[in-house]
Amino acid sequence: MPSSVALRWWSVGYVVLVVVHLGALLADAAVLADVTQCLLMPTLAGALWAATRWPRGHLVTWAFGGLVASFLGDFTPRLLDGDAAFLAMVGCFLLAQVSYVVAFAPRVRRSVVRTAPAWLVVYAGVLVGLVALCGPHAGTLLVPVAVYGGVLTAMAVLATGLGPLGAAGGAVFLVSDALIALGRFVPGWDLPGQDVWVMLTYTVGQALLVASVASDNRARRATRPAASAAQTQTQAPKRDNVVAFVTARRGLEV
């Protein structure tokens, strides 16, 4: 199947799954919601595979790692209960955020860390605010939640190095996990349609990150042939050994 056709099918499949999943949440169809959530990240990984080409390199490889860990974060908690399920989810998504941090780190010079460091104050403020709101009620989960929040914020910051799509994806993903933390730890937090908002921002954030990774892969593949052609043009032509030998022999005969 041509890659463009495959990408279209994977993308349509992802959108359909997101719509069905959100509808299932609204309708309290728990089984359908569980099944569709577990299919989201594998489908998005298929779209990333179809949207990129060899050599996929560091960025795409680690982005796949982030999607795999995210799938585990969606699936594993369903096998557990209570705090164990929550910790399993946090652990898996921590691995996902670490994978994204490793993926995006080489683009740090293009991120707000170098281009607009004032934005770091905003990201730091969001992190401090979340810890301040959730910390007093997190109990023994305070440390893992704080560590996760720090890595999540680092991911969002580094994602800005992939351009507007990456910046938006990292920010929306940050919002999704912030909603989870607020719903879990802040007494009286009552956002109508909490689960729907969490999953909407989660699926949109992940899709934007994947789109930014695919865009970066396309841009780098487009510049590679041009760079190779320029390098070839600058190289001095090499004389064929046979031609050189014949030319020298003729010079001796004269």
List the helices and strands and how they pair.
Elements: H1 3-26, H2 30-51, H3 57-75, H4 82-104, H5 112-115, H6 119-138, H7 142-159, H8 164-185, H9 194-234, H10 241-253
Membrane topology: Multi-pass membrane protein
Pfam families: YhhN
Keywords: Membrane, Transmembrane, Transmembrane helix
Could you please describe the fold and organization of this structure?
Helix 4 runs parallel beside helix 7 (142-159) and helix 6 (119-138) runs antiparallel to helix 7 (142-159). Mean pLDDT is 89; it is low at 226-230. With 254 residues, this protein is mainly α. The protein is built from ten helices and no strands. It has a domain at 56-215. Keywords: Membrane, Transmembrane, Transmembrane helix. It is found in: Membrane. InterPro entries: TMEM86B-like. The chain crosses the membrane at residues 12-33, 54-72, 84-104, 116-133, 139-158, 165-184, 196-214. It comes from Cellulomonas gelida.
In percent, how much strand structure appears in the residues? Answer: under 5%
The count of helical stretches stands at: 10
Q: Round the Cα radius of gyration to an integer and report it.
A: 25 Å
Q: Distance N terminus to C terminus?
A: 65 Å
Mean of the pLDDT scores? 89
* Poorly predicted spans: 226-230
Major sheet details: none
